[in-house]
Specification:
The protein has about 140 residues and is an alpha+beta fold. It has one domain: HIT family, subunit A, CATH 3.30.428.10. It is built from three helices and five strands, in the order H-E-E-E-H-E-E-H.
Amino acid sequence: METCVFCRIVKGVSPATIVYSDEKAMAFMDIRPINPGHLLVIPKMHARYLSELEPDIGGYTFKVAMRVSQAVRNSGVKCDGVNIYLADGEAAAQEIPHVHLHVIPRYFGDGLRLRFRSAYGSLPDEKELEKIGERIRIAMS
């Protein structure tokens, strides 16, 4: 896809600090890092949403993220933990329309917090859970 910045990086047209690349996936430094060592892992195949990826490519992309996260831990970058984050769709804060996993090194006191809405922690009605679960089960078949 000509206009996709990640596809342009894959083709070597746009610059990136690449830390890993093979025939299926690539990992490179995020240019707007949350913490030092923040990387993006992408499938080389263009797909806007996770559900558009071939399952083996999606799984492989996660395997690369696993490997990269261990490399971050071993690199000497300040890292007490790692968040793997995927934003799938605009409403989920996906900024680049190409599947990508954020590999974010975390350390105590880094100030990054995941905030939940005020209703978080309230147990939902079991009938409502079952109703929604049934809709999802049907959609999967």
